[in-house]
Amino acid sequence: MTKQFLPQIKEIKDPEIPPKGIKYLTTIEDSLNYPGRYHSFYNQNGYLSIVLHWVISPKNQPPFLATRQFDAPLSVLPWFVNKFEFFTKMPHEDGFPHGKISTDDLVENEKIGLTRLMGRLNARGDQGYSLSNYSRKDHESTNYQILNISDSYFFQGGFFDTWKELAKKYENGTL
Questions:
Q1: Do 49 and 89 contact (CB within 8 A), yes or no?
Q2: Per-residue pLDDT tens for 49-78?
Q3: 1 in a domain, yes or no?
Q4: Fewer Cβ in 10 A, N or C end of the chain?
Q5: What is the number of structural domains in the chain?
Q6: Over the stretch 80-115, which tens digit does the pLDDT of each residue have?
Q7: CATH code for position 127
């Protein structure tokens, strides 16, 4: 069996000052559910990096910045838009089969999955979606990378609109 080596992706520890050579794209806040929690999007030489970041202020200790990072090829932008449309269609419309809650594909040799989440993702009890990169380990653990987004943030909070704008720029070659 041949082992595949993926291009190295830099960890972005400070979203306001990304490492040299990484292009900042945009930032959005989950103000509906978690004011002060942001997702910042970056282009790392043909790879999309999304950094969830927020400040934690423990009692009697100095505040610190917490981050989680999701990485995938930039072509995941239009893939996700198309896959989400497939995900929301009925089976008779050539959509997602009944009884299924997840799907995955290879996106530039990285296994990317989209899953409908049924649990409570926030205080309002929202369900949501999970985007997973099964080919990449989390920067701080041995688990694969996951990006969870609640329904309210996805639809009303602007996350999906931001994603679609980036996908359009990618397809137009202006990202």
A1: no
A2: 999 999 999 899 999 999 999 999 999 999
A3: no
A4: N
A5: 1
A6: 999 888 877 777 887 777 767 777 879 999 999 998
A7: 3.30.2450
